[in-house]
Amino acid sequence: QVQLVESGGGLVQAGGSLRLSCAASGRSSSGYSMAWFRQAPGKEREFVAAISRSDGRTDYADSVKGRFTISRDNAKNTVYLQMNNLKPEDTAIYYCAADPGYGSLRTRTYASWGQGTQVTVSS
């Protein structure tokens, strides 16, 4: 099973940008579809974005479409989430997830999860 470590979170003003990174170890990330989820205080965890293992197909939640971009560098075993035009409602713990299977990027059950990184957007 792949191990995941997120980084890049922090405090930013509304309208600002952050780039999250998720480093995979244990196995090559090229064999996994990768995703970002987030969980705000008092809310359920929600899908943010994902990128497929095979053809680089991506999927985004409507709330982040046009502002966030997911990408991967298989040579570095790393997936990124570039977040632009951040809003206070983007405040959450962001989790990286990986899964070796196929199917819907947003509804599948992801097998591996990181510990999360906090993103706080001030108004």
Key features of this structure:
123 residues, mainly beta, 7-stranded mixed beta sheet
Query: Span between N and C termini?
Result: 39 Å
Radius of gyration: 13 Å
Q: Sketch the topology as an H/E string, one letter per element.
A: EEEEEEEEEEE
What is the number of helices? 0
Characterise the protein shown here:
- The protein is mainly β and 123 residues long.
- It is 0% helix and 50% strand.
- It is built from no helices and 11 strands.
- Strands 2, 4, 5, 6, 9, 10 and 11 form a 7-stranded mixed sheet that branches. Strands 1-3-8-7 form a 4-stranded antiparallel sheet, with no helix packed on it.
- The radius of gyration is 13 Å and the shape is globular.
Tell me briefly what this model is:
This protein is an all-beta fold. It is 0% helix and 50% strand.
List the helices and strands and how they pair.
Blueprint: E1 3-7, E2 10-13, E3 18-25, E4 33-39, E5 46-51, E6 58-60, E7 68-73, E8 78-83, E9 92-99, E10 112-113, E11 117-122
Parallel strand pairs: 2-11
Antiparallel strand pairs: 1-3, 3-8, 4-5, 4-9, 5-6, 7-8, 9-10, 9-11
